[in-house]
Design goal:
By secondary structure, this protein is α+β, with helices and mostly antiparallel strands. Helix content is 46%, strand content 21%. The relative contact order is 0.13.
């Protein structure tokens, strides 16, 4: 005669324990995969920003070493044909570049910028032409680095040499510094380029 008795729950308990372990491992693996994806995206973004920053620095450096003949210019001896104004704030540096033919560009140390071409021609020409009146206040550059935060640097490009000046931006903004007119002429170019950039983003 067969005897009946309570059914053991050990097989089910063992299965439940294994299932719990598998689910925990799956959650852990999914979390690790998510972290890896986030890390890869972050690395790619940092790399992209680095490449953009290098490109901006390269364009600025090329401008500082450009010969006017390379872009079809034939200025008179000692005559300014281009100017670079660098400003540094907590967020980084900005370099506005103007050429006597009316070309203008704005580059950021963190990458990116605005290449305005001839769209800001009037402001760009005025900036370069005004630099002519300040040559006596400029000297040879000590180096070609960007300014320290709170300072503005001017590099005036002539056929003979680069001419240089640096001043606290606060003093330039006051309008009382000798180079304040040159500073505000540079800001005018920046404003024109920003307007061009905004116009280009409109639908």
């Amino acid at each position: 005669m067969l005897r009946s008795g309570p059914v053991s729950d050990r097989p089910f308990g063992a299965f439940a324990a294994k299932l719990s372990i598998v689910m925990a491992l799956s959650v852990t693996i999914a979390a690790v995969m998510l972290l890896l994806v986030v890390a890869v995206i972050a690395v790619l973004q940092i790399r992209r920003r680095s490449l953009r920053a290098q490109a901006s620095a390269g364009l600025r450096r090329r401008m500082l070493h450009l010969a006017p003949a390379e872009i079809g210019l034939s200025p008179a001896p000692g005559e300014p044909w281009g100017i670079v104004m660098d400003m540094t704030h907590a967020q980084g540096s900005a370099s506005v570049i103007s050429i006597v033919d009316g070309s203008a560009s704005l580059y950021f140390s963190r990458g990116g910028g605005v290449i305005g071409g001839q769209d800001a021609a009037s402001a760009a020409r005025s900036f370069v032409e005004l630099a002519t009146t300040f040559l006596s206040k400029l000297g040879p550059p000590p180096d070609e680095s960007l300014p320290q935060p709170g300072y503005t640097r001017f590099f005036v490009l002539t056929t003979e040499a680069k001419r240089f000046a640096e001043a606290p931006e606060e003093a330039l903004r006051s309008g009382k510094h000798d180079l304040s007119p040159l500073y505000y002429a540079g800001l005018n170019v920046i404003n024109e380029l920003r307007l061009i950039s905004k116009a280009g983003k409109r639908p």
